[in-house]
Amino acid sequence: MPTPYRLCAIDLDDTLLGPDHKLSQRNAEAIQRVVEAGIVVLIASGRMYAASLPTALELHLDAPIICYNGAMVKHPFTGETWMEESVSPDAAGDLMDYCRQAGLQLNFYWHDLLYSAAYTSWLELYHKRTGAPLEVRSDFDTFLRGIAPTKLIIVDAPERIDQLLPEMRDRYGDQLDVTKSNKEYLEFLPPGANKGSALAFVADRYGISSAESIAFGDSWNDLPMLRWAGLSIAVGNAKPEVIAAVDRTVLSNAEDGVGIALEEIFGKG
């Protein structure tokens, strides 16, 4: 079935992947048919590159991965980094000090490795969900002092994250973009880094317009990408603010919503 769409960007956790954080056969087969039809399909995730790569390889996606919530764009087959931005060392150091004094779990991402001062219960939660490669260092504060990370995340209880969000936005102003990607994750990104700006960058490289693009997502950090795409789609388990902002809502990630939507848009082959 002919469609006006030439590019499709899909979030991973709670969107493409099921509640078990795995790729279903129906979603995989639907994506493969879309790729075979000549559509550019890419992953757009808050995850680090190393934690996004396995799904891209499983799907044989010959397209760059948008990772770190848009702070990095890297191709899984060529290894070429199309774009990468970093948090300033000063802002990163200030956040490290804040989290140490407040007893908060801070994930520090540098050179595609997750660093932490300890393997806390919050780090365990994150690690089990994403499989992110990590290194726990007792010299965390000194080893990473003066380093410009790709991004940082505070992981904590949802109510604590909700309390911290406005405080951190006030604290860092235009030094950092602060967003939630999950109810337990508060993300700190380079200014202007988000999935929407990264998707626009990738689409421009392909000569594809926003009107020719589809985006799938579920959470707050997906909103810039969903607003940019010509067709924005939320899975049924998406946050209420996301469902209110999109063109269309489909079945949940537990019900292969992405795959079924792709079948409806592009046909079953």
Q: Any low-confidence stretches, pLDDT <50, length ≥5?
A: none
What is the top-level CATH class of the largest domain?
Alpha Beta
Helix/strand/pairing class, anyone? alpha/beta
Q: Spell out the CATH superfamily of the largest domain.
A: HAD superfamily/HAD-like
Q: In DSSP terms, counting alpha (H) and pi (I) runs of 4 or more, how many helices?
A: 11
How large is the radius of gyration?
A: 18 Å
The shape, in one word, is globular
Fill in the CATH topology of the largest domain. Rossmann fold
Taking the sheet with the most strands, its summary is: 6 strands, mixed
Q: What's the pLDDT, averaged over the residues?
A: 96
Helix content range: 25-40%
H and E order: EHHEHEEEHEEHEHEHEEHEHEHEH
User: What is the number of domains?
Assistant: 2
CATH architecture of the largest domain: 3-Layer(aba) Sandwich
Kindly, what is the distance between the CA atoms of the first and last residues, rounded to a whole number of angstroms? 9 Å
Strand tally is 14
Main-sheet strand order equals 8-7-6-9-11-10
What percent strand?
15-25%
